[in-house]
Write a structure and sequence with these properties.
Keywords: Membrane, Transmembrane, Transmembrane helix
Number of domains: 1
Strand order of the largest sheet: 1-2
Largest sheet: 2 strands, antiparallel
Protein name: DUF2231 domain-containing protein
Distance between the termini: 43 Å
Strand content: under 5%
Helix content: over 70%
Structural class: mainly alpha
Shape: elongated
Length: about 170
Amino acid sequence: MNDDTLHGGLVDPITEKPHFNRTDSKIAVAGHPIHAMLVAFPIALTSCTLGADVLYWWTGDAFWARAGLWAAGAGFLFGLLAGLSGTAELLLVRGIRSRSASWTHFVIAVMLLSIIGANWGYRLTGYEQAVLPYGLLLSLFAVGFTGFTGWHGGKLVFEYQIGVSSTGS
């Protein structure tokens, strides 16, 4: 009996394709992936946008509507930076590119960036008028998508060790 018969004819991609296991970050500073460092900002700013919207709804203070405008804008711009570094990782590292979970994370993250951008763009025409109800709804939607995207990104790091240096830098 050979190995193929023992395993039902399945092929182990790690032994068949050694590049599959090479997932070290190519876009990094001193071994620390840029994408992992940048994603914290749009995550936090998306949550801050929702918080500012809720506080505006509760208090009616224009300060919170203006804070939501700035948080949404900064979240979008930092999201673009995180997205560019993540896209570069996806395209440059074959071991990342060959996993379908990486593409799922990419697609969801692009959708999230679209929501955050729409939320910011909507506020640019009048930040106080934009909060209720559509700004608040977009913020809720963005926070939900942030959790969904983050879950998939975390799965890549914790289950597949994507972007984790194997050299112990």
